[in-house]
Amino acid sequence: MPEISKRGRDMPASPIRKLTPFAEQAKKEGKKVYHLNIGQPDIETPEIMLNALKNIDFTIWAYTPSEGIASYREKLAAYYNKLNYRIAPTDILVTNGGSEALTIAVQSCLSPGDEIIIPEPFYANYNGFVCAADAVVRPILSYIETGFALPPIAEFEKLITDRTRAIAICNPNNPTGYLYSREELESLKALCLKYDLYLFADEAYREFCYDSNTFVSPMHLDGLEQHVVIIDTVSKRYSACGARIGCLITKNKELYHTALKFAQTRLSPSLEGQIAAEAAIDTPDSYFEAVSKEYTARRNTLVEGLNKIEGVFCAVPGGAFYVVAKLPIDNADKFCQWILEEFSYNNETVMMAPATGFYSTPNVGINQVRLAYVLKQEDLRNALACLEKALKAYPGRISI
Ligand SMILES: Cc1ncc(COP(=O)(O)O)c(C=O)c1O
Questions:
Q1: Would the pTM count as exceeding 0.90?
Q2: Tens of pLDDT along 325-347?
Q3: Cβ 126 under 6 angstroms from ligand 1
Q4: 268 Cβ below 6 A of ligand 1
Q5: What processes in GO biological process is this protein linked to (predicted)?
Q6: Which pick of 161, 234, 312, 380 has the fewest CB atoms within 10 Å?
């Protein structure tokens, strides 16, 4: 048999999906499974976006420009400028999802052996994007006790070597829900300028900020224009994960032209995705107001419910739709499998993501899980009741 590449062998599998066979088995046995494990929202996609898709009238399903359709980039620039990003359409490269924007950003900025510092826990696929570039993730721990705030800058400095090229943040954060403050971003700005590093900001959850917290982007900071790379996507903003449209934004022209070369090798982002995404920009504010209200209520239900369970702790996150909670258990990987395989309450069970998949430091977060509040409140309440019973019955319970 021909050999698999070293990079192929090193490529990590998705930790979020590894419990899927156990959930499928539970369903075969007739159990209802509450999926708190993945970030697929149940919110309806804006009608305006779906209508654009239904009304498509092209006669040739053609390639589009590699950088994206001009009219879409113009409307996108106007959307960002309403948020005070101060960018031009020519700073935007439309991609096949935020995932491709991340791939291109990493490929364009990091050479083999180069290092990128990322506060952990972090979105697990960052490992895959960095591995595909033969580069190295240097994780820096953030802690549940502080709600996963940005670690002190002195801790970042300890990790900086002559191979460090970039710092990546996800704001608001997946998996922690933490929303970075202006002060935290200012401190990252000073660090990136001091060591001449790129700052990648993954803003997939920008629209999901609660409690009248203001969202701050590195695009709002003066003097960092050559260092900032924004990663964005329509997946979460419009509950349109299947559209596969995202973008990379940079004001650094050399980087933009490099990124465009990678974009040219995949020829074009999807035509119908861009048509729908362009229409989505006219989504009325009332859509976002309703969504934000719904997620705030869900977050409150989940966070209050979790903290009421004996031995469970989670902070109140300021954004996104995830929480990381600490459970009174020996091992979250074992517990998340056990609850699917061996436990049910009213013939129901819960699927969660063990937080170990979001840490790259070994043996950290072993008693933590990530929960996505992408279900209706009633389902969240049922899932919480099930979790409470399961924690009482679990043989590996540890008293805190
Ligand atoms: C933080 C973060 N970045 C990027 C992505 C990828 O998004 P897309 O669907 O646009 O590829 C996700 C998807 O869940 C995400 O959570």
A1: yes
A2: 999 999 999 999 999 999 999 99
A3: no
A4: no
A5: amino acid metabolic process
A6: 161
